[in-house]
Specification:
single chain, Growth Hormone, Chain: A, 20 helices
């Protein structure tokens, strides 16, 4: 399971691919950008949607919760259901489903219809990610896989930095329905882009429930799944409450929270590409550095983040470290399961999405019962647990 390992299927796929798969990588990155924007855009529009459809903001929050939970189920289920369907056709169908879902959201006459549309969003997110997250191995040469994976995951950071804020601003200026109409248009553009540059992608293997279960026999996959659960749970338990933390612990004015979150997202994009460059050479070391950094920076916020300057520096450092996690964890899964990239990636996407919801839930309980300090400690402890888990990989796998 070294960096040089390739499977016969991957080698054959790459030799059949076009000489340059970078336009396809870019189109897939556009897809991830749109998916994450569609998933998170309602966060900034809850009040407007709730008012228009006569539901509380808490109820409107289902617009965010529902697609995350559905995506966690859809990630392993979609590859099983579609069987040997060409993955190019599958990605086109899922992006078409995203187009339909956003149109339905935009014209929803009541909240029940709107939530139904968000179920469709969740199916599109889970299915698309299950295939796209491991697609770099089929589009570019092996040596360029980490960089291509970083570009695909760069769509996530771009959505957080540009997509969600701009979509929220559009919703505030011209209405939330127009914002979702715009998303549907962008989804259609993405369909056309994928149609133009994505080569035929025969199913690498039939994904059966047994094949998914068998991945847990692989120690590298088990370590990757456990590390993902710990990192994502810890991060979202703390980051969900970053706005009150900045204001109450660092004394930062509420008007500066938005720009600081923009800085966090920008740092995350930088971290994504820096990690992508390092992962090809040193996957194990890079992941260990990133997890240790998270284990330190979140608890350190309680010691050095008591003022605006310290809080800002630590927030940006946090963004840099976490920004490399998605590409790092996915690269780990690719190298841990080179013969089963798609099923291993499907499991990873499912755990990632479940951990987002679980982390936010646990963080909310801790904030309500203890304090903001507790979620920062939890985030650090979870990251430390992930670092210990990854450290064990040196003894249990030959991943380097």
């Amino acid at each position: 399971m070294t960096h040089e390992v390739q499977t016969t299927g991957q080698t054959a796929t790459q030799s059949a691919a076009p000489r340059s798969g970078w336009p396809a990588v870019t189109a897939v990155a556009l897809g991830t950008f749109l998916l994450v924007t569609a998933e998170q855009l309602p966060i900034g529009l809850l009040t407007a949607v709730g008012s228009a459809l006569s539901v509380s903001e808490g109820t409107a929050g289902l617009m965010v919760t529902v697609p995350s939970l559905v995506a966690a189920v859809a990630a392993p289920l979609v590859p099983v259901v579609v069987g040997g369907m060409d993955r190019r056709a599958l990605l086109l169908a899922l992006m078409g489903l995203m187009t339909l879902a956003n149109v339905t959201t935009a014209v929803a006459p009541n909240f029940a219809v709107l939530v139904t549309s968000r179920v469709l969003v969740g199916v599109a997110i889970g299915g698309f990610w299950a295939v796209a997250s491991g697609l770099a191995v089929r589009l570019v040469a092996t040596a360029h896989v980490p960089r291509a994976t970083a570009i695909i995951f760069g769509g996530v950071g771009a959505a957080n930095v540009f997509g969600v804020p701009l979509g929220t601003l559009m919703g505030e200026l011209v209405g939330w329905r127009i914002a979702f109409v715009t998303l549907s248009v962008l989804a259609l553009v993405t369909v056309l882009a994928l149609l133009a540059v994505l080569p035929p992608l025969a199913a690498p293997q039939l994904v059966r429930p047994r094949l998914l279960i068998d991945q847990f026999r692989n120690p590298g996959v088990r370590i990757g799944i456990l590390a993902t659960f710990l990192i994502v749970t810890g991060h979202f338990s703390a980051y969900t409450f970053v706005s009150p933390a900045l204001q109450q612990l660092s004394g930062i004015d509420e008007r500066l929270v938005g720009p600081l979150l923009f800085a966090f997202g920008t740092a995350g994009m930088v971290g994504n590409f820096v990690a992508g460059a390092a992962l090809g050479r040193h996957t194990y070391r890079t992941m260990l550095v990133l997890t240790v950094a998270l284990a330190v920076v979140m608890p350190l916020y309680l010691l050095l983040g008591g003022g605006p300057a310290g809080g800002t520096i630590l927030l940006i450092t946090w963004g840099l470290a976490y920004g490399g996690m998605s590409v790092g964890l996915q690269t780990w899964m690719i190298k841990a399961a080179p013969n089963a990239v798609e099923p291993a990636s499907a499991l990873w996407v499912a755990v990632f999405n479940l951990s987002i919801g679980f982390g936010a839930l646990v963080g909310g309980v801790l904030v309500d019962t203890l304090s903001l300090d507790a979620v920062l400690w939890l985030g650090g402890i979870c990251a430390l647990g992930a670092a210990i888990t990854i450290r064990a990989a040196r003894a249990n796998t030959n991943l380097r």
